[in-house]
Design goal:
The protein is α/β, with parallel strands linked by helices and 226 residues long. 32% of the residues lie in helices and 26% in strands.
Length: 226
């Protein structure tokens, strides 16, 4: 599914965000990416959907070299990747339904398909009763559920979640993680970057730990700290 081969990422200010990363993630895996702030977690995530390009090395998704794609091919790559952001990135003037449906509208999907798949995604995240609400009327947990619905409405084989519980209370955080685990069991590969030690320790998934841009631990049934 994912192959990261000798990948480094440096910025013009001479900051090395990633240093010689090697990582393989198989289909339908659930992987936590952990580490302190500045360890390179978000940069690694951005490489997958080509928000960033590696300075050296190769990023492959299903054997496709992401860096070699032509600019016009990038939107098609991103249709196969769902992204859940910590700060939601919802459209404030659009309803819950419209925020989720928008991800299908940009693909020129038929109107009947847009409605069916949007309602299915909202049902999965438990928000059918909020279809006409606006983001400003939602709690933090509800906003994150909308973000998840938007990310999965295209049925992507890969879902990336960057600090999905960072702005949520402990109970809501567990609800979001249980939802992500349910999505993983629907044949979706899932990578979650997080600082939430309690959740990582409690879920016992594969844990990849970064420090100073390097992989320092890759552990099955892992915990936050070694």
């Amino acid at each position: 599914m994912i192959d990261i081969i000798n990948v480094s990422k440096s910025y013009p200010n001479r900051v090395d965000a990633l240093v010689d990363i090697n990582l393989h993630v198989g289909k339908e895996e659930f992987v936590f990416i952990v580490g302190p702030s500045g360890a390179g977690k978000t940069t690694l995530m951005k490489l997958f959907y080509r928000e960033e390009l590696p300075t050296a090395g190769t990023v492959k998704l299903d054997k496709i070299n992401v860096a070699e794609l032509e600019p016009q091919q990038v939107p098609f790559l991103r249709r196969n990747i769902g992204v859940v952001f910590q700060d939601y990135k919802l459209l404030a003037r659009r309803t819950v339904y419209e925020n989720v449906a928008f991800a299908l509208q940009v693909t020129s999907a038929p109107r009947s398909q847009i409605r069916r798949r949007t309602m299915q995604a909202l049902e999965l995240v438990g928000l059918l009763h909020k279809t006409s609400s606006f983001p400003g009327q939602l709690s933090g947990g509800e906003k994150q559920r909308v973000c998840i619905a938007r990310a999965i409405v295209n049925n992507p084989p890969l879902l990336l979640a960057d600090e999905p519980t960072g702005n949520l209370d402990p109970n809501t955080s567990w609800e979001i993680m249980e939802l992500l685990e349910k999505i993983n069991k629907r044949n979706t590969t899932l990578l979650v970057s997080t600082h939430n030690k309690t959740i990582v320790d409690g879920m016992k998934k594969r844990v990849v730990a970064l420090e100073d841009g390097r992989v320092v631990r890759d552990q099955q049934l892992g915990v936050y700290s070694s």
